[in-house]
Structure formats: structure tokens, C-alpha cells
Design goal:
It is a single chain. By secondary structure, the chain is α/β, with parallel strands linked by helices. β1 and β2 form a beta hairpin. The radius of gyration is 21 Å and the shape is globular. It binds pyridoxal-5'-phosphate. Pyridoxal-5'-phosphate binds next to α6.
Length: 421
């Protein structure tokens, strides 16, 4: 019995899919303690958009630590925090003409979601939050209430209140699901009542890479305005460049009232989360929503470096879009080979392939790991094989990973055919 089986809770997850001991990593390559090397298409579940041990961030962080600078600052002013806020304002908010206040929450995504839900409820004085089928927003009680998957909801162990679920774009095929939302909001007898807000992902990361259309989001914003509800975009997974732009909704021409960011915000895998809210929504009383770990200054150092390095011009964004095109082309080719058995999903560097069931997708990811590719599944049945590689991946490594993936799909689909005959 190894130390993990002996000591670590049964709740552990990823280590079951990738049962080795990892030692080192650089950009999109992982190494284990037996000398094996893996292409990383998991990217710390979307936390390593700028790669493992990004050398620019590493240098800045080492210098900061070497100088005995502040590590933990609660919400006190520090030089690292000032520099992050100034860079975020100058390079992210102002060029996009976005006027928002920044709230530092506890350092995980679910903390930011909890704060966003509280803001919406406190500002409107209403309780219900509209969430969407296949939405994922975290596993603490409030976030689990607006998360769709019963696996996470049931683990809370008590009734979850304050959420109503509506069909996401595409959930009912070609039917415009906003028709149902509008009808339910306009009908006093629909059972929905008057919600405080909607919370939505532009690309459903855990829910199977469903990417809503721009028009759907524009329609959703219109409905929110008409019915006096706040629009919360949860950009924790799709944000920080993963879609090709810093915010995933930049090409949609919408202005969310509240935005949550975490995962790749620090750029170095260091925990950090924020909520952006329109200034008039900032009705918090001092310290009302607190948390000991809101001042991870190491994360502020690398978050600032991430913005200064990659978001001062469009070079990085263009390179992400180019790699997304390569991925799309390759996945579409694979889809074409297998007809209706394989479906391309997602956008940006958040794409994947949907299979008939989770068993097939699991077989593909297991084989991939044997052949040197770390990749996970998502979706209600785990039926979608999902590419979430660092955005900085070298094109040669990207192609190597896609090659392995294509081979694993071929082996698995042939096995499936052989089983059926
Ligand atoms: C869209 C979205 N929101 C919230 C969360 C929760 O973030 P965390 O796991 O850091 O609590 C996730 C995590 O995958 C996510 O993808």
C-alpha cells in the first residue's frame, strides 16, 4: 500500500487517471520519476495557460522572494498588489473600455463564484439565480447549487436552494432556448419567479465543451436587462486567453455586470481569484466577505508578469488563435473519418471530441497516457475528450500531442468496431 492509498482521502481524483509520480515540468511537457515524458493537454485543468514554470514569471518570482518581499498580505496594500492592479487596469480593463471594481476573494474559483452570487442577491434583494444545463461553477454550497451535475450537488448532503436551471444554447438542438427563458420570466405561473441574476459560462468546460453562440449571449443580455436581472459571466476556465482573447466574451459585444476569474489569472499555478463588478454593484461593507488567503502576493507578482508579458499587444492572442485553428483543423479531420460517432466541440484552445459514451472517451485517455499524453474528459457522462493544453505550447509539441490523440481514437474506434462484429 503506498502512502497515498494509506493516507490520502478517497476523494483524490486526477491521480487515479495518471498514476505516476510527476517530478518536473516545462511549458507543456511533464516528466515522471521513472524518466517518462508526457505532452500535457491537461494544463492543470486550465491553470497553466502560460505553461509550467514559465521562465519569465519564475525569474520575477525568485527575485521577489530573494528580496524578502511580502508573501502574505491579507488585504493590506503591498507593492506587488499595487503593481498587479495598475497593470490590470492599464492593459486589460482600460483598452477594452471596461469599468469595473476588483474584489479579491479567497484564492479558488468557487470562492469567487460564492462572492458573485452574494453580490447579486444583496444588490437585488432577490434569491434565485438562473443557471444553465451542464453548467459548472464549483463545489462549495452556493456554487454547487448553481452547478448542474448531480454528482457534485448530491455530495453537499442537504437541499440546495436558490437556483433554477434553464437550457443552455444548443441543449435542445436547433431550438432557441432563450424562447423558453423569456417565456418563463414573463409568465407568473411558470414557477420561476423573478431571479436576481443569471450565471453562465461562454464555453462549458466541465460540462462538455458546449460553446454558446454570440447571438445567444446577446439575446441573454437583452433578457437580463428587460427583466432587471444581473448577468454574471463565470470566466474562470474560459478566461485569461483560453478562447483567444483575454475575456472569453470579447467578440460577443456584451457587458456582463459581474465577471469571475481564477485558474490562470496568476499564470504560474498560484492560487488567486477575483470578482469584477460594475462600480454601482459594489455595496459590500468593509470585511463583509473576507478570507485569510486573499493576499497571495506571489500570485500577484506572476499575475502582473503574465499581463505585462502577454497582453500589452495582440501577438500572444494571435498565436493562440492560430493554434486553435490547428487544433480545429485536426479534430475536424478526425471527426470526418468517423462520421456521427465523433463530434468536434468547443472553441479556442478549449476544444475536444465527443464520443457515444464515457467508456469510449475513458479508453482513449487511458491509451493516450500509455503513449505519453496527459488529457482528461468532461461532460455529463465524461464522454468528451478535452484539450486544455498551455496556450504557450510549442507547435511541434502540439502536433505531437494531436498525433498521439488521433492514434488513440483510431485504436479505440477499431476496437469498438471489432467488439460490435
Ligand atoms: C467555470 C468554472 N467555475 C468555477 C470553477 C471552480 O473553481 P475551483 O476549482 O478553483 O474552485 C471551475 C473549476 O473548474 C470552473 O471551470
Amino acid at each position: 500500500m503506498d502512502i497515498y492509498t494509506k493516507l490520502e482521502s478517497n476523494v483524490r481524483g486526477y491521480c487515479r487517471s495518471f498514476p505516476v509520480t510527476f517530478t518536473k515540468a516545462q511549458n507543456a511537457t511533464l516528466h515522471d520519476n521513472e524518466g517518462n515524458q508526457y505532452v500535457d493537454f491537461l494544463g492543470g485543468a486550465g491553470t497553466l495557460n502560460y505553461g509550467h514554470n514559465n521562465p519569465i514569471f519564475k525569474k520575477a518570482l525568485l527575485e521577489y522572494i530573494e528580496a524578502d518581499s511580502i508573501t502574505h498580505g491579507l488585504d493590506m496594500h503591498t507593492e506587488a498588489k499595487t503593481a498587479f492592479l495598475e497593470s490590470f487596469d492599464n492593459n486589460i480593463l482600460q483598452p477594452r473600455i471596461m469599468e469595473y471594481k476588483v474584489q479579491f476573494t479567497g484564492p479558488t474559483g468557487t470562492n469567487a463564484v460564492e462572492a458573485a452570487l452574494k453580490i447579486a442577491r444583496n444588490v437585488t434583494g432577490r434569491q434565485t439565480i438562473v443557471s444553465f444545463t451542464n453548467g459548472f461553477h464549483g463545489v462549495t454550497q452556493g456554487a454547487a447549487a448553481v452547478t448542474a451535475n448531480m454528482y457534485y450537488k448530491e455530495s453537499i448532503g442537504m437541499p440546495l436552494a436558490g437556483a433554477s436551471f434553464m437550457p443552455y444554447d444548443g441543449y435542445l438542438g436547433d431550438f432557441d432556448t432563450l424562447i423558453y427563458l423569456e417565456k418563463a420570466l414573463s409568465d407568473k405561473s411558470s414557477g420561476l419567479g423573478h431571479p436576481a441574476a443569471v450565471i453562465v459560462e461562454t464555453i462549458q468546460g466541465e460540462g462538455g465543451l458546449n460553446a454558446g453562440k454570440a447571438e445567444w449571449f446577446q439575446g441573454l443580455q437583452k433578457i437580463c436587462k428587460k427583466h432587471d436581472m444581473l448577468l454574471i459571466v463565470d470566466d474562470i476556465q474560459a478566461g485569461c486567453g483560453r478562447s483567444g482573447t483575454f475575456f472569453s466574451f470579447e467578440d460577443f459585444n456584451i457587458q456582463p455586470d459581474i465577471i469571475t476569474l481564477s485558474k490562470s489569472l496568476s499564470g504560474y499555478g498560484l492560487p488567486m481569484a477575483i470578482v469584477l463588478m460594475k462600480p454601482e454593484l459594489d455595496i459590500w461593507k468593509p470585511g463583509e466577505h473576507n478570507g485569510t488567503f486573499r493576499g497571495n502576493n506571489h500570485a500577484f507578482v506572476t499575475a502582473r508578469m503574465a499581463i505585462d508579458t502577454y497582453w500589452k499587444d495582440t501577438e500572444f492572442s494571435d498565436s493562440v488563435k492560430n493554434k486553435a485553428k490547428i487544433i480545429r483543423g485536426r479534430l475536424k479531420e478526425i471527426q470526418a473519418k468517423y462520421g456521427s460517432k465523433v463530434k468536434h466541440k468547443g472553441r479556442g484552445i478549449m476544444q475536444g471530441l465527443e464520443f457515444a459514451n464515457g467508456e469510449i472517451a475513458d479508453r482513449i485517455t487511458e491509451l493516450a497516457f500509455e503513449r505519453g499524453l496527459v488529457i482528461e474528459t468532461s461532460g455529463s457522462d465524461g464522454q468528451v475528450v478535452k484539450i486544455l493544453t498551455p496556450l504557450t505550447i510549442e507547435e511541434s509539441t502540439l502536433n505531437k500531442g494531436l498525433e498521439i490523440l488521433e492514434g488513440c481514437v483510431a485504436t479505440t474506434m477499431n476496437e469498438d468496431v471489432a467488439k460490435a462484429s
